[in-house]
Give the backbone structure.
Amino acid sequence: MMQTKGTFYGIVTIMVALLLISSSLAMVYYGQYQQEASQNQQHVYELDSTLKDYRTLAGDYGSGLSDLNSSISLLANAVSSMNTSTPAYAHASTRLSTLWSSYQILAKLNGSWIPTYSVKMLVDYGNGTSRWYNTTAIQPGWNAYTATVVLLNGRVEAVWYQQYGEHLVEAINDKVSGESNAWFMWTYQKSGWEVSQTGADAVQIYNGTVYAWTLCGYDTSFNPTCTP
Amino acid sequence: MQTDRIAIVAIFTAMVVGSDFALSGLANVKLLDTLVFVSAYLFGFRVGAAVGVLSETIWSVFSPYGFAGAIAPFLLAGELLFALAGWTASKAWGSEFNLKSPYPLFIGSLLTVCAFVWDFETNAATALLGFSPNSFWFAVFGPQTLLFIIPHEISDFLFGTLLAPAFIYIIPKTIRSES
């Protein structure tokens, strides 16, 4: 009986001790839980604030991209109406290609879809050498002159006819027209190559446009004596 | 210049600049030449020259194609030709002018010749200023210019035959009835 009573008190003592220990542990863990919960709440606030900042930044980025696109369009227009002998033209026409490439990369990072046209341009130097330039990155609204300047990284020289608002291209990739030859622009139609009756500025580029520049001689009526 | 002459120059200049912008979508089709001719025909060379110089100066700066730059003096000089033609025509036909006579056709033809000289003069200046003496004739009459030269001459002929005689007939009558 005495042994049973001692065992009983022993068990009770152990249980109380276990209760005390588990309660202490529970209190410690509860304290830690409270601390973690508080930290989590803080993180949620920070995340929420960061998300707001991100959204503001994304808006600013989109707005910046839009401004950049407008600036590129303005630069393209300016390049299209500048005298190519001016130093400003040489700088602006080279920068136009770089800026347009940078804009496309930045827009892709933003997940923006940029409508662009696919264009093929042939440059025939009239001495048996020619080269195709293919791109899928022509901005809608550009004319053939601007597209040519961008495709050739500004290596185009031309006379600007202010009274008509168009250029006479005189040199492409440093190949200069002379007394008996000139750069002619051609567009590819269903019937084949057709020489352009206007300057490149008046030729609008569309998706899939195929055009060419040839350096070749001309007859007394100024018709080209070659085809691409 | 008298006040009424200044008012006439201002009215014609406003008409020219307004029509320049209205017709800017049509390649080289403009009322400028006709109005300069008419103003010189009716009010003398000085008025015509003032209208031509003022309107061409405004257009050289505010044209949608951009600032004219070095070519501007040649554009202005070209307009003086139309003023001279108008003044000379008034001296030659002034009292005999009649809408039923062949004079409207003469005016149209005269404006066509002036338009050709204007195109030649401005294209030649562009070619020389563009440092392309090697391909001078190509730069002046090449395919890139023909689509602008031809509409200029056709439109000047039509405006000169149809509009200029109408203006020359109506404007003096209107001024007389107002005064």
Residues 143-178 of chain B form the longest helix (36 residues). Chain B has a mean pLDDT of 87. Residues 104 and 121 of chain B are 25 Å apart (CA to CA).
